[in-house]
Write a structure and sequence with these properties.
Layout (H helix, E strand, L loop, with lengths): L2 H17 L2 H4 L2 H17 L3 H14 L4 H13 L3 H15 L5 H13 L3 H13 L5 H6 L3 H16 L3 H14 L4 H29 L19 H16 L4 H24 L2
Helix pairs in contact: 1-3, 3-4, 3-5, 4-5, 5-6, 6-7, 7-8, 8-10, 10-11, 10-12, 11-12, 12-13, 12-14, 13-14
Length: 275
């Protein structure tokens, strides 16, 4: 939008606020029409602070105006006020009730992720998955791309929560229905890789504690099953499968594998140094 057009729109809202007689200004429909239209245009122009002011002007007359509240969430997101945006989005979803759709929950999940509320982010994705009538594998088979997307996103957040087994289950749900999905194989490889790296950290802690006299050992550090390093092998196999399906992913996958080997060598070096 040209600057001239934007200035005209701002002039309209100023006119509505100052010049229009109170009887007309208090007309909530008129106020909503002008304000929401302007807020949408301001967001497109990345004038998020002005968009927040505009939506507040609309909400002063009608605090339940759904469009204005949704626009304010977008504007707050643009300002990186993710916690405030998340809280408002939760109220919107609560008010919508049964009419809440997946896009509402996707927005909430994204806001929770950006604000660091990872547990709530996972909950949002779990609700999205549960909104499909068919069982997960059948839903993916039927061509419900939204289900696959839900599993991908949920899996990535579970990785951030170090809930690796659950992330593995998410990606396996897609792979079981569509073995040729290279994206799912990469996600599965990531889950196994992070699980492997986590286990290596646990292994280092275990050996570090074993080097101490029994009375000084941290009881919270427990012995672990060395066979858990099987997850690293599974990660490599998953990445290789992804490359077989789509050779174009090779550069990214190769970098992951090389990085994991370097991390493994570093972990063993640290273990030896602490023996």
């Amino acid at each position: 939008m040209k600057v001239k057009t934007l200035l005209i729109i701002i002039a309209v809202i100023a006119f509505a606020c100052i010049v229009i007689p109170p009887a007309v200004s208090e007309n909530t429909d008129l106020r909503s029409g002008i304000g929401n239209s302007l807020a949408g245009n301001l967001i497109e122009q990345k004038k998020y602070d002005l968009a927040v002011m505009t939506t507040d002007w609309v909400l002063e007359a009608d605090s339940s105006n759904l469009e204005a509240r949704e626009l304010k969430v977008d504007a707050l997101s643009g300002l990186e006020e993710y916690e405030l945006a998340s809280e408002m989005q939760k109220y919107i979803i609560a008010d919508k009730g049964a009419s809440t759709d997946k896009s509402d929950l996707y927005k909430l999940a994204e806001l929770d992720l950006k604000s660091g509320n990872l547990a709530e982010c996972v909950e949002a994705y779990e609700v999205i998955v549960s909104m499909y009538d068919l069982p997960s594998a059948d839903a993916v088979t039927s061509g419900a791309d939204g289900v696959s997307c839900s599993y991908y996103e949920k899996g990535s957040v579970l990785l951030k929560l170090q809930r690796y087994d659950e992330a593995i289950a998410c990606y396996n749900s897609v792979i079981e229905a569509n073995p040729s999905d290279s994206k799912a194989w990469i996600g599965l490889g990531d889950a196994y890789l992070f699980k492997s790296l986590y286990d290596q950290g646990q292994l280092k802690d275990m050996y570090k504690e074993l080097g101490k006299i029994p009375s000084e050992r941290d009881s919270s550090v427990k012995r672990m099953d060395i066979s858990s390093f099987e997850s690293h092998r599974k990660a490599v196999e998953a990445y290789q499968k992804a490359v077989e399906i789509d050779p174009l992913v090779y550069p990214a996958v190769a970098a992951k594998i090389m990085g994991s080997y370097e991390k493994t060598v570093s972990s063993y070096q640290d273990i030896l140094e602490n023996l």
